[in-house]
């Protein structure tokens, strides 16, 4: 588990591949590290899964939740959860969940909304069984929508628009 999947830890290489960085909060078998104390969380609050905030058993699905939140934010152009402080944000995540009606109001295709809903389901067992499963579902939607782009085409687009420093 990465436990800190958020926009500042996602990079795009010049060849159009997406890279995840900052493995300081990773939890994995065999890693020598101190356990996170009960009641303590690591990661950017807006992207934390409800079970992580609630101090329940966490799996890789906390990272899928974070990816779903980032997709929501990319589509709406605004933070998913806006509150005056971290505690209020965590309460919104646990009690309210994502405001999916905003996506519908913006005419986001239903299948894409369903992908985000599944990725961010409050019950982690209802989320995708793997990151590959989520990726395949997104790729299938992109192909049907006629908007699928290979990494090389994505790279060309980024270069043409001066999006690399």
Task: Compile the SSE list and pairings.
Blueprint: E1 10-12, E2 18-20, H1 50-53, H2 61-76, H3 86-95, H4 101-105, H5 110-119, H6 131-145, H7 151-160
Antiparallel strand pairs: 1-2
Task: Provide structural commentary.
- Helices cover 42% and strands 4% of the residues.
- By secondary structure, it is mostly helical.
- A two-stranded antiparallel sheet has the order 1-2.
- Helix 5 runs antiparallel to helix 6.
- The two termini are 30 Å apart.
- The model has no long low-confidence stretch (mean pLDDT 88).
What's this, in brief?
With 165 residues, the protein is mainly alpha-helical. The protein is built from seven helices and two strands, in the order ββααααααα. Helix 2 runs antiparallel to helix 5.
Global mean pLDDT: 88
Distance between the termini: 30 Å
**What is the CATH architecture term?**
Orthogonal Bundle
Ranges where pLDDT stays below 50 over 5 or more residues in a row are none
Summarize the biggest pleated sheet. Answer: 2 strands, antiparallel
Task: List its traits.
mainly alpha; Transferase(Phosphotransferase), domain 1; two-stranded antiparallel ribbon; 42% helix; globular
């Amino acid at each position: 588990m990465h436990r800190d999947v958020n926009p500042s830890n996602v990079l795009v290489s010049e060849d159009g591949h997406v890279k995840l960085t900052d493995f300081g909060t990773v939890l994995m078998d065999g890693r020598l590290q101190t356990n996170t104390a009960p009641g303590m969380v690591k990661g950017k609050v807006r992207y934390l899964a409800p079970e992580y905030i609630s101090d329940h058993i966490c799996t890789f699905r906390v990272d899928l939740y974070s990816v779903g939140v980032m997709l929501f934010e990319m589509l709406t152009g605004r933070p998913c959860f806006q509150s005056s402080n971290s505690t209020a944000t965590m309460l919104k995540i646990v009690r309210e969940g994502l405001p999916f009606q905003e996506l519908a109001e913006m005419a986001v295709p239903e299948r894409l909304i369903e992908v985000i809903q599944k990725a961010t389901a409050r019950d982690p067992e209802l989320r995708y069984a793997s990151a590959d499963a989520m990726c395949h579902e997104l790729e299938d939607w992109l192909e049907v929508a006629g908007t699928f782009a290979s990494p090389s085409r994505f790279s060309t687009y980024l270069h043409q628009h001066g999006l690399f420093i």
